[in-house]
Description:
Blueprint: E1 41-49, E2 61-69, H1 73-76
Antiparallel strand pairs: 1-2
Amino acid sequence: MSGNPHHQTTPSGKQRARAFGIRFDGTPGPFNAITDVAGVAVGYSTLISGEGALVVGEGPVRTGVTAILPRPRAELA
């Protein structure tokens, strides 16, 4: 298990798998994130529309998407 307590919990304080003794190959990067991997780009978009009580099929809407690009952008062009 990593000696760094930052790698034991998520930013919101929830325990990560390694906090329960689940072992993984390798060592976490400084941010314990996919963005620690050289050459990987991560982008996201969040849609927030409407407010008030939920009406199924109408809203409000809270959704999003995350894209992980395993190669530098120049290779994708």
